[in-house]
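Section 5: illustrative case.
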């Protein structure tokens, strides 16, 4: 399968009155055509910032200070704004967000907004684009005659997310980025939306980046999982492997804290809390919470390295030269 996206050493900072937030600290991500990658981790670990950086949607006081985002062989960080708008954003890469209602424009009817997305991405007139709207709405299971005429505030959360999905996929993107697409919805609707997304992505052969704090959802939906912690990628492997044999102490803790229905297992959370990224801990950013921490962890940031075929981890426990610590 051909490589679609290769993000390397991505660094993002936010300059705030409290100081500089080192939000991404050298992130590496990669994705093949038609592949589904899950990015998981707690709130504030850099999942959304990574996605927004790929789209070049980091606005001041945020700044991408370093790195490469190679998409179809071109570095998106070197493209002009105009090129990004003309050929990448909302065309080759489209995005859906957690709060579908607020992502839609409140003053325009659903039909108009979908038509606009289609017109923009296909370089066609609004009249032409309107003709394609019914098909888009039907695809996401909505009654097109009725939904076209609705304003965003007249939609339920589930309907609004269906509209967002219709808009995002109407442009036939190579890559769909879904940032917590179901976490604002109730559980039964969540399942329906994920199933819909699954079917449509299969048909459209889109690659997907699914961002979620829910490892269960990620592993069911995705081929491969990237675990992030405090602005770093700390583990990457296929979905099953990360569940069955996680390597990083943080991933192990995450998996241990997933409740299993019917099991009498005592839930073990991860002690401590996520660091303040204005003054993150030196070395491994997880070290203040890690029960395996040794001297080297406090001074040296571990690299992400492949320790088993297709299984990558950033932890000194797995470095060849780790034992002197
Ligand atoms: Fe723990 Fe050290 Fe590994 Fe970080 S590098 S996760 S502190 S053992
Ligand atoms: Mg987020």
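Designed sequence:
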């Amino acid at each position: 399968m051909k490589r679609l996206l290769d993000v390397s050493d991505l660094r993002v900072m936010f300059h705030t009155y409290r100081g500089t937030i080192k939000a991404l600290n050298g992130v590496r991500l990669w994705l093949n055509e038609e592949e589904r990658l899950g990015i998981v981790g707690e709130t504030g670990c850099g999942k959304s910032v990574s996605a927004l950086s790929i789209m070049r949607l980091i606005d001041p006081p945020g700044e991408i200070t370093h790195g490469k985002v190679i998409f179809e062989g071109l570095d998106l960080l070197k493209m002009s704004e105009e090129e990004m708008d003309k050929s990448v954003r909302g065309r080759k890469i489209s995005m859906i967000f957690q709060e579908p209602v607020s992502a839609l424009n409140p003053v325009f009817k659903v039909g108009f907004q979908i038509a606009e997305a289609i017109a923009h991405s296909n370089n066609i007139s609004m009249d032409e684009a309107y003709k394609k709207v019914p098909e888009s709405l039907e695809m996401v299971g909505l009654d097109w005659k009725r939904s076209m005429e609705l304003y965003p505030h007249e939609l339920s959360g589930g309907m609004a997310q269906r509209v967002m999905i219709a808009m995002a996929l109407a442009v036939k993107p190579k890559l769909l980025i879904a940032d917590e697409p179901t976490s604002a919805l109730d559980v039964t609707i969540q399942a329906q939306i994920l199933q819909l997304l699954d079917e449509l992505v299969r048909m459209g052969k889109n690659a997907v980046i699914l961002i979620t704090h829910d490892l269960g959802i990620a592993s069911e939906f995705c081929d491969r999982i990237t675990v992030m912690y405090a602005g770093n990628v700390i583990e990457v492997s296929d979905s099953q492997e990360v569940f069955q044999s996680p390597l990083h102490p943080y991933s192990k803790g995450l998996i241990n804290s997933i409740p299993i229905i019917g099991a009498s297992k005592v839930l073990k959370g991860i002690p401590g809390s996520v660091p303040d990224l204005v003054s993150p801990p030196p070395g491994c950013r997880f070290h203040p919470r890690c029960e395996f921490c040794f001297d080297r962890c406090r001074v040296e940031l571990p690299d992400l390295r492949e320790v088993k075929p297709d299984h990558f981890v950033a932890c000194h426990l797995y470095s060849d030269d780790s034992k002197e610590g």
